[in-house]
Amino acid sequence: MAVKTLKDLLDEGVDGRHVIVRSDFNVPLNDDREITDKGRIIASLPTLKALSEGGAKVIVMAHLGRPKGEVNEKYSLAPVAEALSDELGQYVALAADVVGEDAHERANGLTEGDILLLENVRFDPRETSKDEAERTAFAQELAALAADNGAFVSDGFGVVHRAQTSVYDIAKLLPHYAGGLVETEISVLEKIAESPEAPYVVVLGGSKVSDKIGVIEALAAKADKIIVGGGMCYTFLAAQGHNVQQSLLQEEMKETCTDLLARFGDKIVLPVDLVAASEFNKDAEKQIVDLDSIPEGWMSLDIGPESVKNFGEVLSTAKTIFWNGPMGVFEFAAFSEGTRGIAQAIIDATAGNGAFSVVGGGDSAASVRVLGLNEDGFSHISTGGGASLEYLEGKELPGVAILAQ
Prior knowledge:
Elements (H helix, E strand, L loop, with lengths): L5 H7 L5 E5 L16 H15 L3 E5 L16 H11 L3 E3 L6 H8 L6 E3 L14 H13 L6 E4 L21 E3 L1 H15 L5 E5 L8 H7 L5 E4 L4 H7 L14 H11 L3 E2 L3 E5 L8 E5 L8 E5 L1 H12 L3 E5 L12 H17 L2 E4 L2 H9 L9 E2 L3 H8 L5 H4 L4
Parallel strand pairs: 1-2, 1-5, 2-4, 3-4, 5-6, 7-8, 7-13, 8-9, 13-14, 14-15
Antiparallel strand pairs: 10-11, 10-12
């Protein structure tokens, strides 16, 4: 897909121009509103630095959480502005609104190299409106912040699968370019989608089967093996007749899983043992069990050591690996070893077998950092879980498609 890139914009010249950048700062916060994983912020820095160093007056748009079109201090981007200032080594001001008086005053007052962060774009209900006229009106107000000779850079890969104002509609109004992050993500995913070197192993985890049906269907024809763990594996196990007790189960998806196993059973690799817990709690009593030995009333919160070993053997021969979704509740130390084991197996395959390994964003990317694993051990860590999956399913990403127009 032919799109103009950040390099094209820099070659044209940005000195003194207002450049609006859509970044993805939907970062996790703890109860004290402290950022627990700066991965997406770190990933945004190269594009912002390049524009700032080129003399642009940079205006950054982003969202955080789901404030549902209302101003809510809980979802303010204040922690992000502080973290950006620290990481960039320069002050990043936060506008008190999105397209209001403060945003306009601050945008007008920018000098070359300055960076301004607008408040959460989802504080405005028009950002996610289904009404095109409402989104267009909001886009016009956002574009007005750039004054004359402005430009738009799309650099939030985690949101390009959504046709929302700050991702899609604004690109219709300003000269538009793919940021370095979006450009890299697309080239990596193209490699996996179009020409993966065999053996190609897909590792899927996370909570819901329904979220991954499309990608299983799409990749079954290309992948040599599809490893399934995490919360979604229990619906597959239940479809095989195992009693998963109180483990996460999508009863309505059992028939679908039965069908998938019938069609792709030679490719789908499921756990052979589990880590059972007496309750959903980091301090819960736990025991390693066979598939049919979860104590009554208990639940499984992780895959067991034999499963890690089996999955690791499959990964050890892979030349291409795509991983999306943790193997268990990695946030609880007692139930993090499955995810840690699989991540390490992917790192080992990357180093020892020369595998091209991609971590498909979301919780799997967060788990790499939370568990203190070597991020450089993977070929690429994506910033967009949902966007990555939809791309691999073959769906058009509106925020990318608009850049080609």
